[in-house]
Specification:
single chain; Rossmann fold; DNA polymerase, domain 1; 2 domains; six-stranded parallel β-sheet; about 10% strand
Length: about 240
């Protein structure tokens, strides 16, 4: 007779305890997206990196709205093609994928390691809710200084933020007991969180003049994140 695993009756009746979760956007919040993009643009078109980045941003949202939603690698490639065309810059087809190639090496902000380690030590589980695809975020995670317990990508949900699909998916799958979202982008993250009733901390690294009332707290960087989370959770010393 095959052996059958035995579970004590009292354990079989215990339901999983919902965890406290901090979810994060990745690029712009944890990874210096603007610097990484600009440096790649400079490698392709010396002296034009900022222009290429800004021209790319004019097209990103439109490309992401494609049906079906393209992988982020495809968004980066097509966005770079369109940006170069707008600026009349000669982009060799072999270089069209340069952003996807360099993205896993874009620099992590120096305030990430200490802040997220402190939050984890306080008992929070950490998640990434990213517009990246599975392959690129897996490569990026190798360089993040803390481990993450969950990842939701645009490829997983078939949509890009600010579409609420990431947030619905995370809530349905992980059923957090307490949940705070942390992000730099007011458009992609803070606005949808406000609509969905999810408390958020806006990491306003760029000093943008968007509506501050939509976030539960606003920080200039991640240095003060552990204290802000404790205040929102009612666990301040």
């Amino acid at each position: 007779m095959d052996a059958v695993a035995w579970t004590p009756p009292f354990l079989a009746t215990l339901a999983p305890v919902p965890a406290r979760w901090l979810s994060f956007d990745c690029f712009g919040t944890l990874v210096d997206w603007r610097h990484g993009f600009t440096i790649t643009g400079e490698l392709l078109f010396p002296g034009r990196g900022d222009e290429v980045r800004d021209a790319y941003l004019d097209h990103e949202l439109e490309i992401e709205r494609g049906t079906p939603a393209p992988r982020y690698r495809e968004v980066l490639t097509e966005g770079l093609r369109r940006a170069a065309a707008d600026l009349s810059l000669p982009l060799h087809e072999d270089d069209a994928g340069a952003l996807a190639v360099t993205l896993p090496y874009w620099p992590v902000f120096p305030d990430v390691g200490g802040a997220l380690t402190a939050c984890r030590d306080d008992g929070w589980r950490l998640a990434l809710l990213t517009n990246c695809d599975r392959e690129l975020i897996a490569l990026t995670r190798r360089r993040l200084p803390v481990p993450f317990d969950a990842v939701v990508t645009a490829e997983d949900v078939g949509a890009y933020k600010p579409d609420p699909a990431h947030f619905h998916h995370f809530r349905d799958v992980y059923a957090p007991a307490r949940w705070i979202h942390v992000a730099q982008s007011h458009h992609h993250d803070i606005r949808p969180c406000a609509t969905l009733g999810i408390p958020s901390i806006w990491i306003n690294r760029l000093g943008e003049p968007h509506d501050p009332s939509l976030a539960a707290a606003i920080l200039a960087d991640l240095t003060g994140l552990p204290d802000a989370v404790r205040r929102l959770a009612g666990t301040s010393p």
